[in-house]
Amino acid sequence: MENKEVDCAHIPLTGDSAGNIRNVVGCYKNVLVCGVKGVGKITNTVQAVRDKTNVCYVGNPVDYEGKSRPGSYEKYLSYILSLKSDIRIVRSMDALFPVRDELILIVDEIYGRSEAEREQISRLLDMPNIRIIQIVGCMKYMIGLIEKIDAILELHLDGAFMIDREFGKAICDILGKKN
Q: Do 126 and 79 meet the contact criterion of CB atoms below 8 Å apart?
């Protein structure tokens, strides 16, 4: 999914969140997409890869505050499928480790994941054939995983901006301390 249309040293960010995500993902392997509630993190991420094949999605039944998804988790998954009908919902990350084909993996939220799931995400971030888009409501929960992120994109209602990786690591170190 290499981006030949964008100068990766100077990615232009606009009010088009899906376009911003598409450009950043085209330049970096492991991308963290964050932002406040309601900016369209998942909607814009799926729209950014709508024309790509071999896109997988690993969901999370809870959001960044530990609240259940509105309606039910199954309704949420149906919504994801309505955005991209050929997206593959992955219910067990173990199924991804033997895969050798190139794919894009959207990992929805980190909050509430077990240590085993976090370890699986860490291993997936290391796999050269998997381009990962990690979505989080709050970056501080990426502690321990932030080191493997190549680019951080924060969405806002009227656009987006890139967050310096070292600043992102500092956020995790300071705010993400285990309770």
A: no
